[in-house]
Amino acid sequence: MHKEKYHPSFKAILALQKYYMGMPFHRQEYVQSLLGFPIPASTQWQLMEELTGCALLVFPALEKLAANGSLIHNENTVLRIVDTIHHNRLNPDKKRTGMYTTGILAQNGAHKIAFFYNSQRHSGENMERLLNKRHKSNAKVIQMCDALNHNIPETHDTIVCNCLSHGFRKFDELQAFYPEHCLPIKCLLDVAHCLNSVPRFE
């Protein structure tokens, strides 16, 4: 019989709800109280620290698998990091002040591996760090991203495939100003989207 007060599977569920489903600890505290099992947000944080000790051993192994996959998607979005905001205010001459979440989805065989990196690093810088773990003998990885130059790693050569959805939206924005140029391109992109929606049979 398990002797700890909180079973490892319970810690795993808390982690999934917080970091995969995006449910804050205080909201989980409220839900648990509705179920008759109150667990304070501070206790949940402590349990996540305990879980981190196990997860940190798995994380580098997953990064190595992802780095040696055949296809990697990467994307940036902005976020707010309280410590970094405070540090930026104390250092007004600081050159880099932006904060980002980089989402990386890698395909290695039949496995899909997802990472979310929260820092001041751009998507391309996170890709650079990941691809440093790629075997030198491997062929170039296919990289799927939008056309922003911050998505491209500095020293690793990849097969870059830019996102058609981003391109379509940009031409849609410009159509009112340049209809004769944008409409034909949108029609061509529409063909690609239609082909992509056709079911593929193995």
Automatic annotation (TrEMBL):
<dbReference type="Pfam" id="PF03050">
    <property type="entry name" value="DDE_Tnp_IS66"/>
</dbReference>
<feature type="domain" description="Transposase IS66 central">
    <location>
        <begin position="6"/>
        <end position="177"/>
    </location>
</feature>
<protein>
    <submittedName>
        <fullName>Transposase IS66 family protein</fullName>
    </submittedName>
</protein>
<dbReference type="InterPro" id="IPR004291">
    <property type="entry name" value="Transposase_IS66_central"/>
</dbReference>
